[in-house]
């Protein structure tokens, strides 16, 4: 039974029409993203209670009371040896943890994806250059075969589509032509689609193309939940799905320069050594006659033992490359 995607996505719409519909229904005042303090009168009205009960609720729910008796006794000193405690205090990129395996101690590097303050900083929302009623789109990129989510972004509806490669959305190719050296990959696809005898599907029709840098997201007619196509670097393909369309609120980054704003990144996979299957791989080799596969992965210890003698001379011919970061997607 074939899954019908069209039945599980929205009707075609544009961000401009979405914004106009919101303004017509809720008005200009209701879309303000500036929060006001909740007063006792608000609690009384929302809970349909009296003043005494509202004051008691405010006292019990005060964040200062959300502590346990042992919390004050737990003191983190500057000389604390635990590695996990300072993770929320400094933007670490990696932490070394000791792992015991077969009664031997080996060091394994684990990557903690903690965004640094310089990247995607959105804590300070006191200043803004975005107007009330700005429309945001949530865009998710998926692996074309595994269909697993890889990255996710918030984009402004009134910003241009500036990504290398091309998008294919609702029968239109949006090509990046900012660089004169960029190749228009959509030409061959459109020519192929015109020749019906070369394709098995009769549903394909004539396509069109536009310059990506001339189009803003708000002018795109899209369907939420429908898979579109994104290709870059010639043959690196992704499924692209617009998952949400909403108005900007106070918890969103308030500066235009922060967009596209990354909201999701797939956790990478640690690649272990092909020999010991314990330590993290530090080297990749090709054309290696002693390796099980090509390319093959080695930790530092196994790489040295298999490829060099005691005087650090190569035992046979091979190509070796540092495995940058010790991780692969």
What does the secondary structure layout of this molecule look like, with pairings?
Blueprint: H1 15-30, H2 40-47, H3 51-60, E1 94-101, E2 104-111, E3 135-142, E4 149-156, E5 166-169, E6 172-175, H4 186-194, E7 208-211, E8 227-232, E9 236-247, E10 261-265, E11 269-270, E12 283-286, E13 296-298, H5 300-307, E14 319-322, E15 327-328
Helix pairs in contact: 2-3
Offer a few descriptive terms:
alpha+beta; 15 strands; single chain; 5 helices; three-stranded antiparallel beta sheet; 329 residues
What fraction of the residues are assigned to beta strands by DSSP? 15-25%
The helix-and-strand class reads: alpha+beta
The neighbouring-strand order within the major sheet is: 7-6-5-8-9-3-4-10
Helix content: 10-25%
Global Rg: 27 Å
| Oligomeric description of these chains | single chain
Mean pLDDT: 76
Characterize the biggest β-sheet: 8 strands, mixed
* Total helical segments: 5
